[in-house]
Amino acid sequence: MTAGSPRSEDARRSQVLHRFFAGLTEHTFSARLGVADPALIDYLSDMLTHFVHSDSIYGLRTPTGERLTQVVDMLAEAQARQGAARRRAHRHIGDFTLFWTGLYPELAEQARKGRRDSLLDYPDEGKRNYLLASRFPADRDSVPDEVLQRLSDCFDLCVFGLGELRKEWQDCEGSGDAPLLLG
Questions:
Q1: Which end of the chain, N or C, is more open, meaning fewer C-beta atoms within 10 Å of its C-beta?
Q2: What is the spatial distance between Cα 120 and Cα 124, in angstroms, rounded to a whole number?
């Protein structure tokens, strides 16, 4: 990878975004909410950095490559998987529901209207799926079970914290201090 190449630019942009989200998440959760849990804060900032790309938000796919956009379909896919693949699917459902209910609850509600997901309670599904993920075998580089259990136990606090983070993020955008997320 050479300096100035598209890959090096993508890597630099990803590092800038990760530092931005790590700082914002730490400030929101530690300083404002009094949550002193570095592993949880790191997980949330990594999730935000990862979900900047819509391909990641809708990253759970069927074996034929079909993108799953509804939690109902993600749940069915998770049930069809075994071991670490099932753990990853349940974790993704937890991340998906946390992301939408925490950062964009108005869009989550709007997107669910008239769809099969309208019958689901995203916070309940998020809690349940993080807990399920913690009980399946992990990959070598997987998130520790304890972090997934805390995400389940503290889901409502994380939703609130992400809502507060969104306000701070919008303040940063208004002042020009936020990195450009697209481009």
A1: C
A2: 8
